[in-house]
Amino acid sequence: MKKKDPGEGYTGQITVAFKAYLELASHSSVKTICETGFNAGHSTFGWLTINPNAHVYSFDIGVHQYAKPMAEYIRKLHPERFNITWGDSTKTIPIFHRQHPEVLCDLIIIDGGHTTGICKADLLNFKKMANNDSIVILDNYPQKSWKFNQILGDVWEWAKRNGEISEIFRCHVDAKPSDFGFSVGKIINNCC
Questions:
Q1: 7 Rama sector, left if φ>0, alpha if ψ -120 to 50, beta otherwise
Q2: pLDDT digits over 31-67, tens only?
Q3: In terms of Cα–Cα distance, which of 125, 187, 100, 135 is closest to 25?
Q4: Can you give the pTM of this predicted structure?
């Protein structure tokens, strides 16, 4: 018998965060949304619903039992507007970019692996896919949790110091059963 997958938390559990994510995705300038951390697809479903012109490219390791069935469900609803790539995002994003250099992300969401190496790699790899006005969201920072603040906060603050992003705002929500935060910035594209 399979052990039940306990799952993870998701952005939709925090109303103010989910509304902010949907607001950012609803702008007419947003045509391409790129994310790490599909999980059960709550955000993806919301973005595709709120913005009928958006295409979502999602990258997820696929460890949860529910991830692939949910991706198939969303793909059936939006076959022309949803792509998912399974595997280690630190490897799959660069491969995808080499194979699809025409895909440029208007909105980037980093909510995949919660380690310094993975978070930093996802940010830098997505930066190569960013257009000149790309917005980036880093999920889970700021939070009261020392673990996320230390790991994800270090990456966000490093990116600001090194001119990779310019911060627009941070949001911390003291929600039950745990707190939640996210940061929004603009990708600084040094290519041109």
A1: left
A2: 999 999 999 899 999 999 999 999 999 999 999 999 9
A3: 135
A4: 0.89
